[in-house]
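Long-time lurker, first post.

We've been arguing in lab meeting about whether adenosine monophosphate would sit comfortably in this protein at all. Half the group thinks yes, half thinks no, and nobody has a model to point at. So I'm putting the question to the forum: if I give you the sequence and the SMILES, can you give me back a predicted structure of the complex? Inputs are below. Any interpretation is welcome too.
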Amino acid sequence: MSVLVVIECANGEVKKSSLEAASYGSQVAAALGTTATAVAIGDVQSDALSGLGAQGITRVLLDNDTRLHNFVPGAYVKVISKAAEQENSSVIVLSNSNIGAAIGSRLAVKLGASLATNVVSLPQINGSTFTVRRGVFSGKAFSDVELSSDKKIIAVKKNAVEIETNAGATATVENFSADLADADFATAPKETIKQSGDILLTEADLVVSGGRGLKGPENWHLIEDLAKALGAATACSKPVADVGWRPHHEHVGQTGITVSPNLYIAVGISGAIQHLAGVNSSKVIVVINKDPEAPFFKAADYGIVGDATEVVPKLIEAAKALDK
Amino acid sequence: MKILVCISNVPDTTTKITFTPDGKSFNTAGVQFVINPYDEYALTRAIELKEALGGTVTVLNVGEADTEPNIRKALAIGADDAIRVNLKPTDAFLVAQQIAHYAKEGGYDLILMGRESIDYNGFQVHGMVGELLGIPTIAPAIKLDINGNTAVVEREIEGGKEVIEASLPLVVTAQQPMSEPRIPNMRGIMTARTKPLKVVEPVGQEAKTSVQNYELPPAKSGVKMIPAENAGDLIKLLRNEAKVL
Ligand SMILES: Cc1cc2nc3c(=O)[nH]c(=O)nc-3n(C[C@H](O)[C@H](O)[C@H](O)COP(=O)(O)OP(=O)(O)OC[C@H]3O[C@@H](n4cnc5c(N)ncnc54)[C@H](O)[C@@H]3O)c2cc1C
Ligand SMILES: Nc1ncnc2c1ncn2[C@@H]1O[C@H](COP(=O)(O)O)[C@@H](O)[C@H]1O
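Top reply:
Settle the argument with this. Predicted structure of the protein with adenosine monophosphate, as tokens:
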């Protein structure tokens, strides 16, 4: 019996959220007195995977089928359930991404497992029952959930786990195949349209976000330049996406993307409750707003009252002056 | 075309979340419940498709009698009929079993749901329903068109989108900007009163998880203000004090 960790890869690398899942999985394995095995899918080579030893993974199963470079839920579920069967795994750990949660829910039915998504804590293990803490009510609360089936699937929320780094440890990488048929790829994408820069919003440690206070798309260079100087991803409030100043996949909040970076800088955003719902689990929140009464200040760690067009250039200058 | 739209009943997005003193349940006193916002995108898109292609839109909710005002609202917006499975939705698998059962019974071409419910934020029910029915689930979708027996769907992915063409039947989950949610008009509200709302009993009772208690996050310790003239100091604080840069 080993704990199985699902590793998502893109552009030849393991995603950061999957390093977190690996660290989580190996800690669960240690608590259960077993080892953690990973199953990797996506665009990656074995060299990038042996590094998962640093996160406590002993073996990595790699399915090299290039058709898996795109996310196809049915095919992914086949690969992972075959790996779970081979490894006799009763605990499967994934990251709580769109991909991880989508696979988790299908696997839960297929394997008859208890599933918890959006998990922020290691399990309390009591015999064959796990209790995990998860985020609910759009980040406004937590709940402790008991997973009672023999098999458990846990999708770990981004930034809830420290990445372990056991220097020097390497994992062995083994080829693995689930013998997929064309029919498994019935929902393969016909076309993929990349719309944003190098740093993915959902994976980013640092996010700079703009609201209606920016007045128009012509001022977005302020957000972009600050993001660039810090190495951050860019985001926006809902009305900004609604009027088309920014693409919809940048909109964070209750009806948009939920982010939990180490740093969220909100410029010209009032801090409506629906916006906060998408960002309130960020570690540090900075608010820049010309209105000292803006509700966002109540949720902030650092604040500056001032006009974005005057404040942000100063930040860009200071950020550029930081030695990296 | 027969479309099923699954709606959940959730606290209004402006609700201040509180729990009973023992921490065991969500405090519903004074809380206004609404159709889950993501499900509204699904519902409106379903109605648009029906208007363009013909067919019917059925809404389904797994919930107790107190969800009926929102089911009626969905009928007023333009759904043709409704099913309420009389069960408190305490677990995603429990809910998915109900939906899968009644979806199979109705023989729908398309099952539309929301990306996630904003109360329990599961992102689970749609994948489970797809697996129970043995059909694909495409989540989260931002655009949906039907072309004969094929759905053309845009799925949001990190940093972009993908175009997927798949044959019906399918489960598709909605999020912005799939459609522009509609407000019920007077005629809709009048006709909704007489549209069929069937209450059915649950099938199977197998829950796989149970909530033990709830907790609110610790309060923020307060905001540190930096004068605008010295804005650059913020960057230093973020590096040396908050240690996030
Ligand atoms: C069901 C529902 C779901 C929703 N979901 C979301 C969601 O997911 N995400 C989301 O963001 N919103 C969401 N909203 C909308 C939300 O209620 C707010 O309307 C929205 O967040 C406001 O966006 P904003 O802060 O950019 O704009 P505004 O509220 O207009 O705020 C602009 C701010 O900029 C400040 N400002 C103006 N000029 C300057 C300047 N020169 N320099 C600095 N500051 C300046 C102002 O003082 C103000 O605080 C939702 C609403 C509903 C009803
Ligand atoms: N009690 C319910 N009744 C009907 N549909 C539901 C219910 N709960 C969830 N759903 C549907 O499943 C989607 C995902 O919900 P969840 O997995 O809870 O995040 C929702 O957007 C709804 O479309």
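For your lab meeting: Residues B 6-8, 36, 38-39, 60-63, 89, 92, 95, 113-114, 116-117, 120-126 surround adenosine monophosphate (ligand 2) (CB under 6 Å). Helices of chain A lie at 16-32, 46-50, 73-87, 98-111, 220-230, 238-242, 273-279, 308-321. Whichever side wins, do check it experimentally.
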